[in-house]
Write a structure and sequence with these properties.
Catalytic activity: ATP + H2O = ADP + phosphate + H(+)
Number of strands: 29
Enzyme class: isomerase
Largest sheet: 8 strands, mixed
Bound molecules: iron/sulfur cluster
Main location: nucleus
Family: Belongs to the helicase family. RAD3/XPD subfamily.
Distance between the termini: 51 Å
Helix content: 40-55%
Strand content: 5-15%
Number of helices: 40
Protein name: DNA 5'-3' helicase
Shape: globular
Length: 1056
């Protein structure tokens, strides 16, 4: 719309019309409506951190933080490095206080100016709020029109807000949201300008200046609102029919500056979990850091925040029960409820309460990112415990990862992957290389390792919490290798954070974790897929390329043997003698000479001597050649073959003359030979290691495994790709030593439903098994089950339906409709890469993709990690700048497991279909058979459980805190059967409780148009202000006083 100065038209159209029963709004009503809409505009377009009413709370929080920092700095024993960090945080907080102060002062001056204006000219009729660089270059504009009642506008003397005005304000905000106002964020920080039409006689030069030439840019259309009073008749619809030509525009001199940095920080404060805050901005983190000390029975718990969620408290109570009972436990708690900090607080406090007990916390994470996040949280907790308890709270906590993540030698780090870094390190640190370097100065060593070795027993880490970054920095500073230092310190550390494999994969656990004490508390975080990790740790695949590589390795080994025979035959003889004597193969090795332990579990490794037929190096090579030949022959098959390890070993024995006992020792024998031959290129010898790994496992286990040989992938039968897989079906095998060895093992995740299935899959008896609800102040999760398109045709990824044009079209239409309603980020998950590729190609041909791209940018997950990371970066950027984006991804992919789409990065997630595993897979069928026969778990039950945990994992990506909100659509006609009816009949649900509790009956069998309606309603609801501390007497944020009261009265009812 183009509007000339002072121009009016009786045909002017309004986006929102608000009728009020009052005869006049009155000056006070007008002021409050302007003020509320001003707050709405600033907040909804993400220009201020919180609604106007809450800003003073945020400001108080900042000031308290500043005082805390000052107090901390005055303490005499603050180390220089901590002091530096605190000073920098103090500067940051101070800067934020200034900005917040300026923002609050301007808003308050603007409010006073508006009040003055209303006193002077109660007849004001038109007010414009403009967000943008200047009034002439608006990004958003809201034009408010107050039409007169018979009485005209008047000023009643005071500006208190009446109930009627309050109701009118709410009505207006609701109406605004339903038009989609505020659903888009503005690109970057803006300024807010206020313009009013008033008589030219207005004389408030301190606050308002005439702006006669004001008009919008030709192409710009403001959002218009009109407020109509009861007594107003049709003739007075236009404000300009009674002398409006006399009015002119005035611009308020008080322009609201909107500081983006502050907004980013504070939005994360509002929306992120404590965990993500901790991982990110230090000042935000410090601002949240408050002090809570409370008792759970005999344990004094130190919790580094000013409030605790009720479910965090409950979680701690149950965890303590398990620790007291010295047993294992299963705890399911929704994402975004602060599971990690609850767990760390309880276990470290438990340890403090029992100073004589050697309790160690071993925290296993799936990714390095999660490891760093956990250590970040622990740091804050530790700082807090130190300030309260002083030196007695000191601990040593460290993260342990591969050389790739810890090495500081730039030449070694240049190697491209993990195996190459390991091999490059070994080339500089193996004992024989170092011995050679003593004679030949041209042999390259690692200076960091040499200094570390030189320091010998003095190479220790002082107490503290060390992330991988901290370890690298410490190592560089001292000149010691951080990797070997961390490995060495594991035995002294009170808290160790590392990956699952360090405990579950016997090849790694045998070296890294063998020293851990029984009293250690083992935590597997995000453990919903733990059964798959266990199975993978004991499964091996052999392809043609593996056999070819292994043959090359054997040639090289053979050459080396010949070379040694000619130059240093004594070495081979010594090895032979050692093997005859049956000496432990690895027991006397230095740290640098160990690289992988035996793949079989500790209890299964025989302590006998190595069999005679493989003691001589050349005999061993000969046995391996026969094994390769046999495996090559087995791969030359045209049919799928499945057999048990027992029958495989007997056939191998009869055809190649290799016995079971010989197979069992292959891995250790190879290890010994490679050391004797001083081979350091371990990465080049991976194929032969895989073969020996296979041989040892197949020779060790008779139950729980299958050997499956497939000539091609069934989905691509025309491409020959033979594969021989030794597949483990029993997850309990890998985890059994952990349960047997340690006193308490905690298995925890946001998705462990049905919680009774895990003890059966992993064969253990938990002393505590609990699933916690999320205490909510509002229904911020909106799950829906969509079964039909707008044309009522069912949608599903069931094999016979998934390619149906109607299904593909309906899925596309669903997305097109949703992207036009939902602001910011939308994430879509498909059941597989091939399905995603197919459906998107069809959408492209039918123009659906184009319709989507008209609303939002589109990004894809691919199998290439770098490409996907880039796509994710750009996706986030598109969400940040307000353009909005759609991310296409795959269930069971990297994105589904480890990437968060919190806040505006994910307002909706659509799960297209149910992510069942490929049910014709021979490995899956063998596992299902095993589960049925051994654990009496029905095939259908397991498949549904597995598919729904993956689906829950995908949709859970959008909610990472309680302040967040998001919708989840399960788009498949099979879902109601799998979720609700299932739960009704069997009294057991396979979706986590925190999703099911929000899944209403009315949201179960939806068509696309019904889902759109629900989405609109939900978004409107989420835009309303709410009380974050809880309502109706049920608290969702507990203070220290609440906990004390609960302890006194024993009333725990208040928590939910
Ligand atoms: S010893 Fe340490 S610093 Fe040196 S190459 Fe190996 S991992 Fe890197």
């Amino acid at each position: 719309m183009e509007m000339e100065e002072g121009e009016g038209s009786t045909e002017e159209k309004y986006d929102v019309e608000i009728a009020t029963t009052a005869s006049s709004l009155g000056g006070s009503g007008v002021f409050h409506i302007i003020n509320d809409i001003l707050g709405f505009v600033l907040y909804m377009h993400q220009q201020i951190p919180s609604v106007l009413q809450d800003m003073s709370l945020d400001f108080d929080g900042l000031q308290t933080e500043f005082t805390d920092l000052e107090a901390h700095l005055t303490q005499p024993d603050v180390k220089p490095v901590v002091r530096r960090k605190l000073l920098s945080s103090k500067r940051e907080v101070k800067h934020e206080i200034k900005k917040m102060q300026k923002l609050m002062t301007t808003i308050s001056t603007l409010q006073s100016a508006l009040q003055l204006l209303i006193r002077e000219a109660p007849d004001i009729q038109r007010v414009v709020l403009i967000l943008g660089g200047s009034p002439l270059r608006p990004q958003k504009a809201y034009e408010l029109l107050f039409t007169r009642g018979d009485n005209g506008l008047s000023f009643e003397g005071d500006f208190s807000k009446s109930k009627a005005t309050e109701a009118l304000s709410k009505k207006t905000i609701r109406a605004l949201i339903s038009t989609g106002a505020g659903s888009t964020s503005c690109p970057g920080p803006m300024r807010l300008f206020v313009l009013v039409q008033a008589p030219p006689s207005l004389n408030l030069p301190q606050d308002f200046l005439p702006k006669r030439d004001f008009r919008y840019n030709r192409k710009f259309v403001p959002l218009k609102l009109r407020f109509k009073c009861k007594t107003q008749d049709n003739e007075t619809n236009s404000p300009f029919n009674s002398g409006t030509n006399d009015l002119i525009w005035f611009q308020c001199r008080h322009i609201v500056p909107c500081p983006l940095k502050l907004i980013e920080v504070s939005l994360s404060l509002v929306n992120n979990t404590q965990a993500s805050i901790l991982a990110g901005n230090r000042s935000t983190l410090l601002r949240r850091r408050k002090k809570m000390i409370f008792k759970i029975e005999d344990v004094t718990v130190y919790f580094p925040y000013d409030n605790i969620y009720p479910e965090q408290y409950e979680y701690m109570v149950e965890l303590k029960r398990a620790l007291d009972a010295k047993g294992h436990c299963l705890l399911e708690m929704p994402t975004g409820t602060g599971k990690t900090i609850a767990l760390l607080s309880l276990i470290t406090s438990y340890r403090l309460s029992r100073p004589d007990s050697p309790i160690k916390l071993v925290y296993c994470t799936r990714t390095v990112h999660e490891m760093e996040k956990t250590l970040g949280e622990l740091k804050i907790l530790h700082d807090y415990q130190l300030t309260h308890l002083g030196a007695q709270a000191k601990i040593l906590a460290l993260g342990l990862s591969s050389r790739k993540n810890l090495c500081v030698n730039s030449k070694v780090l240049a190697a491209e992957n993990r195996d190459s870094v390991d091999a490059a390190c070994r080339k500089r640190t193996a004992s024989w290389v170092r011995a050679l370097a003593a004679e030949n100065p041209n042999v390259q060593l690692c200076d960091y390792f040499e200094s570390y070795e030189k320091a010998a027993d003095n190479a220790l880490l002082p107490p503290g919490v060390y992330t991988l970054e901290d370890l690298r920095a410490f190592g560089k500073n001292r000149g010691w290798c951080p990797y070997f230092l961390a490995r060495h310190m594991v035995q002294f550390a009170n808290v160790i954070v590392y990956s699952y494999q360090y405990l579950l994969d016997p090849k790694v656990a045998g070296i890294i974790s063998k020293e851990l004490q029984k009293e250690s508390v083992i935590v597997f975080d995000e453990a919903h897929n733990i059964d798959n990790v266990c199975i993978e740790a004991l499964s091996v695949s052999v392809r043609r390329v593996t056999l070819e590589g292994a043959n090359r390795n054997l040639n090289k080994i053979r050459q080396e043997i010949d070379r040694f025979k000619a130059t240093d035959a004594g070495r081979l003889r010594a090895e032979y003698n050692r093997l005859i004597e049956g000496l432990a193969l690895r027991g006397d090795l230095s740290g640098t000479d160990q690289w992988l332990a035996n793949p079989a579990l500790p209890n299964d490794i025989l302590k006998e001597a190595v069999p005679g037929n493989i003691r001589r190096a050349e005999h061993f090579v000969h046995v391996l050649r026969r094994l390769l030949q046999y495996l090559g022959g087995r791969l030359d098959t045209e049919n799928v073959e499945k057999e048990s390890p027992v029958s495989f070993v007997s056939s191998l024995n009869s055809q190649a003359g290799i016995e079971q006992k010989t197979l069992k020792f292959c891995y250790d024998r190879l290890h010994s030979l490679m050391m004797t031959l001083e081979i350091t290129d371990t990465d080049e010898f991976l194929p032969i290691q895989t073969i020996c790994d296979f041989a040892t496992l197949v020779g060790t286990y008779a139950r729980g495994f299958s050997i499956i040989i497939e000539p091609y992938d069934e989905r691509m039968p025309h491409i020959p790709d033979p594969i021989l897989q030794l597949s483990c079906h029993d997850a309990s095998l890998a985890i059994k030593p952990v349960f047997d060895r340690f006193q308490s093992v905690v298995i925890t995740s946001g998705t462990l439903s049905p919680i009774d299935l895990y003890p059966r899959l992993l064969s253990f008896n938990p002393v505590v098994s609990r699933s916690f609800k999320m205490s909510m102040t509002r229904d911020c999760i909106c799950p829906m089950v969509l079964t039909r398109g707008s044309d009522q045709l069912p949608v599903s990824t069931k094999f016979d339906m998934r390619s149906d044009p109607g299904v593909v079209r309906n899925y596309g239409k669903l997305l097109v409709e949703m992207v036009s309603v939902v602001p910011d980020g939308v994430v879509c998950f498909f059941v597989s890469y091939s399905y995603m590729d197919g459906i998107i190609a069809t959408w492209n041909e039918t123009g659906i993709l184009k319709e989507i791209t008209q609303q939002k940018l589109v990004f894809f997950e691919t199998q290439d990690v770098v490409e996907t990371t880039l796509a994710l970066d750009n996706y986030r950027r598109a969400c940040d700048c307000g353009r909005g984006a759609v991310f296409f991804s795959v269930a069971r992919g990297k994105v589904a497991e480890g990437i968060d789409f919190d806040r505006h990065y994910g307002r909706l997630v659509v799960m297209f279909g149910v992510p069942f595993q490929y049910t014709l897979s021979k490995i899956l069928l063998a596992r299902l058979e095993y589960l049925r026969d051994t654990f009496q778990i029905k095939e259908g039950d397991f498949l549904t459980f597995d598919a729904l945990r993956q689906a829950a994992q995908c949709v859970g990506r959008v909610i990472r805190s309680k302040a967040d909100y998001g919708m989840m659509i399960f788009a498949d006609k099979r879902l109601p059967l799998q979720t609700c009816r299932y739960s009704r009949h069997d009294k057991r649900s396979k979706l986590p409780g925190w999703i099911l509790s929000h899944l209403r009956d009315a949201h179960l069998n939806l068509s696309t148009d019904m889902a759109i309606h629900i989405a609109r309603e939900f978004l409107r609801k989420m835009a309303q202000p709410y009380d974050k501390t809880g309502t109706m007497g049920r608290k969702t944020l507990l203070t220290q006083e609440d906990l004390e009261k609960m302890a006194e009265t024993g009333v725990q009812d208040m928590v939910y």
